[in-house]
Design a protein that fits this description.
single chain, alpha/beta, 7-stranded mixed sheet, 15 helices
Amino acid sequence: MTESWATFGADLHLDLSAGRGLRAGLTEALREAARSGRLVAGTRLPSSRSLAADLGIARNTVAEAYAELVAEGWLTARQGSGTRVAERARPRRPAAPARVRRPARGGPSYSLMPGSPDLAGFPRAAWLSAARRALTGAPNEAFGYEGDARGRVELRRALADYLARARGVYADPERIVLTAGFVHGLKLLARVLRARRVREVAVEGYGLDYHRDELVRAGLRTRPLGVDGDGARTGELTGAAGAAGAPGAVLLTPAHQFPTGAALTPARRAAAVDWARTTGGLILEDDYDGEFRYDRQPVGALQGLDPDRVVYLGTASKSLAPGLRMGWMVLPPGLLDEVLAVKGLGDRTSSALEQLTLAEFITSGAYDRHVRGMRLRYRRRRDELVAAVSGRVAVSGIAAGLHAVLDLPAGTERSVLQSAAWQDLAVCGLARFRHPEAELPARDALVVGYGTPPDSAWAPTLAALAAALP
């Protein structure tokens, strides 16, 4: 498998400890990363110029830190090969839990809950640099009460360029509306659908209950579609087109079905678009982790097949952090005014300065570098997860995103969850995500989120998982 596209520009996620000089702090952070095995032997480090730019420090500071670590034997430097972690740097492998743990009263010690990225990987130094540049260049009116209900135009322009390049989205900045995350966007769309007298929205038979709840709270019914190894069975939409109360919209996760991990096949993508064109229905595309695919380049968004019938929804929750509360919708032309009427100026999202910071983060190339680095990190974690459970259970779904599905023997999901609790491990069963009205084959599985644990807890978390499996 080629790694060139995934490994280029990896983020080192260095913590420059307070109370030290910059060079001493950088030297110690690199030394500890090599000593602990977080930077494995042979890893190529960024050039001194690139790392200095990312950290916002002088190039000489980086060069001196590299030189000291080369002298100590932690790094090697060869002409044409760059600076790499030396072979002598071997990882310290945390020992597996020595005994079965009782459920902890203060919360589990280990977590493989899906839905969260590695929060320790947030690019603090690069974000701070972008924030400084954004603040310096911010127009005076950015600090005022007034503003466009769609959000800052600088961020909408940056997103339009990025989404077109990275996700194949047809994105006019004028038709991008910024939100406080996916749920906020879904809430706005649900109100618009209800105002259009839509009564029912089709959803995937496996999915997040709080997404369904938002639709129900808006007065909409949800109709489950079947889900299998090819994603949602979008052909069922055509079968419902002539029925009373047929759905007026469908909510899909085409790039990486959540939680089963399937990718929607081209035939089923085409079936969904044909249904929307024939009935006038809308497709709501949740592209929650479309940038993270490890066995090939990410597949483009469904929106590219018909920008007039698909609403594209994305966020920074998986690529950066959910705490940023940053999301966006790319709307068909005929939907923009209705969404803005529902949203209004009083429905604020993130602050103007945060929007300007993200715009600067994207346009400077820091966002691309961060995604490439996290893609490499998550791919390694997935590979290690697969190796840890090999021979015990099968891993299904495509190699993508921040979670994997572990298929269990029939009838064992509940007992495995209990066993995980005794290992002090938080993890989800697949049954948790099943629509209550879905007619789906019985299936026992765990939905394992490998983005959640910090590096320091990763090895013991895998050990706890292995101990919980049948």
